[in-house]
Amino acid sequence: MISSTDRYFIERKYHNPEKEFDAFKRMAYHGTGYIEESGLDDEQILDGLAQLEKETEHLPHPIARAMAIKYVLENERIYINEHDYFVGLYSLGRLANKTTFEKWAKDSQSLRDADTLECSRDFNNSGAVMIWTDYDHVVPDWKSLMELGFSGIRERSREYRKLHEKNGTMNEEKSAFFEGIEIEYSAIIDLIDRMYNIAKEQTFDKSSKIATCLKNLRDGKPTDFYEALQLIYIYFIVSESVDSYQVRSLGNGLDGTLLPFYENDIASGKYTKDDIRDFLSYFLMQWSAIGNYWGQPFYMGGTNLDGSTKYNELSYEILDVYDILEIYNPKIQLKINTNTPDFILNKAFDMVRRKNASFVFCCEPAMIKAVMGYGATYEEALNMDIRGCYETGVRANEVSSTSGYVNAAKAVELVFYNGFDNISKKQIGIKTGEISEIKTFEDFYFAFLKQWEYLIQQSMKITNDAERFLAFVNPSSMYSATIETSLKNGRDGYGGGVKFNNNAMLNCGFASAVDSLMAVKEFVFDKKEISLTEMAEVLKNNWKGYEILQIKAKKSPHKYGNNDTITDTYASAMASYFANKVNNVPNNKGGVYKAIFHSARAFVIQGERTGALPDGRNAGEELSKNASAAPGMDKNGVTALIESATKLVPSDYHESFCLDVMLHPSAIDGENGFNVFKGILMTYLKKDGQSIQFNVFNTDTLRDAQENPEKYQNLQVRVCGWNTLWNNMSKKEQDAYILRSENIQ
């Protein structure tokens, strides 16, 4: 395992942990241990890029972009350090973007439809829809990288280029596509050669092993476990920090990708199991030290075509090393099925209940149905990648960029004001009639659906307009070269080069919307305690003067997540409505839209821009997240929550569907706790749930942590699709977790 001294230095490789650090701007920092004379600093590189731009500004974008990346890689300061088995780059701030990506993004704005662009801005400002161009969910074909190496990937591209020339299918666009790959992969290989030449001159203990590794990766494919890890890391750090495409899975199943190397090294005696664990500890610490707020994902496990499990001895070793390191980044996705071995489940359960380790359990049966729902074959679905938080995608043949985070709760709010938004002071929705004209709950519900539909359809219109320029703004030479379909087509992977060119539309604030509709039904139309016009004024004034009614609304039994029949009937219909409006609608890339039940941080950001709601929520408070209940409203236990969630038909959400569960430590304590945990997970799986994740909390502990943060430096919280430290959360966010925990005592 990693030594305490080496860990100390790796924790300072990307930024100084003793100084203030913004995880959202992680690439703006510099660490220590880099060889100053090996390259330039940021300002010097930017000056060089500005000079280079004069030479390349008239070239096709793939070539100009690749040349800018080449310049950065040629001049990066390098990290070859006695405390680390892994190399490093000093300048992580995507410097090549200054003269390419950022300039071209501005250019694309002038080519966009003006009305659609204004709508996009209004949606973002109002909290109705969060929408932007997404380059953050990329998974290369790790199998090709492992079998070919960087030089083999370049050679395969050359062969396809010759084939297009031979077949007469070459044109200027394809020529630029292949030339961009040639330049960029040659630059990566030259970077590795530069690293090798530095490493071979060093005399510290690890230097000869590092040098041999780099020489082999320069010349061909990885030959052992350590080299495979180094390849993953080099691809990641160049793609994320120079090329501007976030790599959202380390391996096509980290255990599966590494298993052949593990078995060969153990069988040949090249490395022992202890050696393997050492390499893993240094590897995993890279992402812990980087500190991406969202976490760096990798998944493990799954099922083979013959029905056997893909989990193996290495799977457990990875979990055990992660456990010993006591880290929460990278985050781990576990593919779960009825064949998942107990030794994996029990290890993961124990880690979750002891320290809220960063896990999400991804249930294969429903996820396979979801992926097949947009045209994938059974085999493609079985071998799907899991990307980002828990999103699915066809391995080595799908680009799926997230589009609109559609705020269902905002659609309820817009009904009260005839589509006018009191936050942005603009007409955000459509005019569904003055609130005084709505006489029945059915009319109110229909108006909500029309507002919601408008947000969905406008989001698709915005996305179709914006994504004409994905490859124009950011050619994906590094990614596309790993995708054989892209090479066959001679087209950028983000420009229609792959089989599935999809988009995901996110259903956000769902439970808040359901609960609000139920409150309107109960208190306005059934009990007639207040009129709709009065309710509109109450909400505009943030419940002031109506605190008793607010308490009633909060305590109503008609809340999603409690297996309440009438509530779940509406919730099921609403979930189906969203999925039907989104799934398989053609986009302008030759692909389709996919529904996704995921919120990321929209539940906080959109919550801040959403006014008071009829469910008793105050203006600015967080909304519900994922497919979960509103904060503190799931009061009937985890079984009721699962019943409510699975009535939504999770497999209808083709990109992903995730349920958040909070458990009290006593519920899963002791030996029987494993059976309880497994019972919850398998119940959810058998009811066709997709992903599920857990927080195990005691209210007293959370309150004490809020009052005495110094005592809880390592307390982890599962946020949405990632973990963070309790002490890194705002008091408002902490209060929401305390509220939820109070209902599970």
Note the overall shape.
globular
Radius of gyration (CA) equals: 26 Å
Q: How do the strands line up in the largest sheet? A: 3-9-12-13-14-15-6-5-4
Task: Determine the N-to-C terminus distance.
Answer: 39 Å
Number of strands: 17
Uncertain parts: none
Task: Characterize the structure shown.
Helices cover 50% and strands 10% of the residues. The radius of gyration is 26 Å and the shape is globular. The mean pLDDT is 95. Helix 6 crosses helix 7 and helix 16 packs across helix 17. The chain is built from 29 helices and 17 strands. With 745 residues, it is α/β, with parallel strands linked by helices.
Quick structural summary:
The chain is α/β, with parallel strands linked by helices. The protein contains 29 helices and 17 strands. Strand 16 (716-718) and strand 17 (723-725) form a beta hairpin.
Entry keywords:
745 residues; alpha/beta; nine-stranded mixed beta sheet; two-stranded antiparallel ribbon; 17 strands
What topology emerges from the helices and strands here?
Elements: H1 4-10, H2 42-56, H3 61-75, E1 78-79, E2 88-89, H4 101-111, H5 114-126, E3 129-131, H6 142-167, H7 172-199, H8 207-219, H9 225-243, H10 254-268, H11 273-290, E4 297-301, H12 313-325, E5 331-336, H13 342-355, E6 359-363, H14 364-372, H15 378-382, E7 385-387, E8 391-393, E9 398-407, H16 408-416, E10 420-421, E11 426-427, H17 441-466, H18 470-473, H19 477-480, H20 484-489, E12 500-508, H21 510-526, H22 532-540, H23 547-555, H24 565-582, E13 593-597, H25 602-608, H26 638-646, E14 656-663, H27 672-686, E15 691-696, H28 699-707, E16 716-718, E17 723-725, H29 731-742
Parallel strand pairs: 4-5, 5-6, 9-12, 12-13, 13-14, 14-15
Antiparallel strand pairs: 1-2, 3-9, 6-15, 7-8, 10-11, 16-17
Helix pairs in contact: 2-3, 3-7, 5-17, 6-7, 7-8, 8-9, 9-11, 11-12, 12-13, 16-17, 16-21, 17-24, 21-24, 28-29
